[in-house]
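---------- Forwarded message ----------

FYI, see the Pimeloyl-ACP methyl ester carboxylesterase record below. Original note from H. follows.
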Amino acid sequence: MGEMIDVGDVGLWVERRGTGPDVLLIAGLGDTAEAWQSQLDGLADRYRLTAFDNRGAGRTPLPEGPLSVPLMAADAAALLDALEVPAAHVAGFSGGSFIAQELALSRPELVRSLVLMSTCARPDAYFRTMTGFWHWMAERAPSERAMLEAFYLWVYTPRAHADGTVDRIIEEALAFAHPQSVDAFQRQLASFAGHDTLDRLAGITAPTLVLAGELDLATPPRLGRVVAEGIPGAGFEVLPGEAHQPFQEVPDVFNARVDAFWREVGARG
């Protein structure tokens, strides 16, 4: 069971699982703590995992006023402070990886290590055009189902579309009791489209692993490589045959890789 934790002007819905070294999981555009279910289930025997709904997603409200990646990073920092976690392994995917970058820059003492999945440092022309399309697609799609069917073309592999995985995910999304509003989707999207850490990446001091899906259309490997090259000592790996969300499509592969990385970081002390 989750709980609402006050981090200032908003309460974040938080799910915690397991025992061991602390791990903070940061979701991306529109996603909630449930996006990390395979990690909450698969890694709880080794880690104390914390996942949460960013402001404007799921059960976490979206107050009036500007929304930005640094603000969501401040939420993540305030959450760790509220939970009295002195430092955590931080993993973020897509927009969550943007938040993780800002967290590592603004509160480096809280970040024991970084895993950045499906990431970038500065959106390029393709990314800006893509997110602009998503913005009006959310308003003009004939139904929520149609919106998800279109949106997930950028998110999941052709394999997942063919084998029924995407159909199952759509049904789960439609049945979810706390759907994201169009306004919240667009405001989150605008904040992620404005993300820019390119000239500040050298300031990230945490051990970092950047992962990219070979078939990722939204944040292709070329964008992740730029992030890895900008962070001192960062590792970079491409997952063959995978797209934007391997942690959902091939969770055993993803879990094994991040577990090995976190163990390496732990061994270094």
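H. also flagged this: DSSP finds eleven helices and eight strands in the chain.
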